[in-house]
Amino acid sequence: MRTLTCERCGQRVFFENLACDACGAALGFVPAELGFGAFEIGGDGGWQRLAEGAVAQRPCSNYRLEGVCNWMLPADSAEALCLSCRTTHVIPALGKPENRDHWARIEQAKRRLFYSLAALKLPAPSKDDDAEHGLSFHFLEQVTPQQRVLTGHDMGVITLNISEADDARREQMRAHLHEPYRTLLGHFRHEIGHYYWDRLVSGSGWLAEFRTLFGDERADYGQALQQHYGGPLADWRSSFISSYASAHPWEDWAECWAHYMHIQDGLESAAAWGLRLERALPGGAPVIAQPLGREAELAPALIEQWLPISQFINAMDRSLGSYDSYPFAMPTPVIEKLDFIHRLLAAVGRGELAMNFSRNIFSRS
Fold it and tell me: What is the CA radius of gyration of the chain?
């Protein structure tokens, strides 16, 4: 993530902040600007932007009324909710105090997802705006053992079991499934990968290359998962980013998509903080963090930037007695799959790949 500062005093602020600790201004993230606006809240409840000439904004209803958001929308917008909250259509019953906390943590992770999508210039419309091709997030509580709530994606509907917002329960699932990594943001990045496969790859001129790299997605999905849970491929590490990626080409794509987003946001954050590793390799040149360039080759950035930076992050984790933040390796086939995603997004950026959306979404605020 890029450097975020208070619009009034220039103090560094963080993505979750509601106010500037230095000058006291109320803060609201402005998605169109990928930065924070600074505001004064009047006695009438109105939000006055403090930067002269800046576009007037007002808070998302979930910011003002529910306390689970910190995003803004244009003051003249007909919508009540921000771009991220507009895609949430089902929330857990708020009669349980812990469910409100779960909802807030889930929305926070989802806003990080939407930040990255905006940085990649990928539309993410709500099904309210594009009923056929839009997004709808359902955050569900499993209330009985018989009614299982499974996290997943189906035709733009992304379902998340709210127990994933409970650190202890999520860690229990991570250990039970022998997963090295399990986070709310990781779930969102994986499931949005399924969504963008439908928007970008399905039926496009990139499908043949996809099948060469990832496999034929027409293979029976249910049977593939059944075989995977019976025991993953013994040599999956030679070709896949994770064990689950080896289950089916769709899961391989979604896992690689999630990791591409990890790398994109991770390198942007490292560059924003001015990270420079003087001793990444004994006797080697310093590593100076740089954001991923849309048109630059991906493999050199992975090898020369992400590999040493992720090793540094993992070394810090171990120093603090924590798990590795990035417990993954990248064999050549994985790099080739990530490069496919990189080239695909570059083509989108150049306008060479038409995305599968309804046209009217591009005229909405």
Answer: 21
Q: Which of 177, 186, 166, 174 is nearest to 326 (CA)?
A: 186
- How far the first Cα of the chain sits from its last, in Å, is 23
Structure tokens at 259: 């990791």
What is the rounded distance in angstroms from the CA atom of residue 77 to the CA atom of residue 88? 18
pLDDT tens digit string along 313-326? 999 999 999 999 99
Residues 270, 231 contacting (CB under 8 angstroms): no
Phi, psi dihedrals of residue 195, rounded to the nearest 5°: -60, -45
Evaluate if residue 354 carries a pLDDT over 90: no
Q: How confident is the model at residue 363 (pLDDT cuts 50, 70, 90)?
A: very low
Whole-model pTM: value is: 0.93
Beta bridge partners of 264: none
Backbone angles phi, psi at 107, to 5 degrees: -65, -35
Task: Find tokens 């690689």 and name the residue.
Answer: 256
Separation between Cα atoms, residue 233 and residue 219, nearest integer Å: 16
**Beta bridge pairs of residue 88:** 137
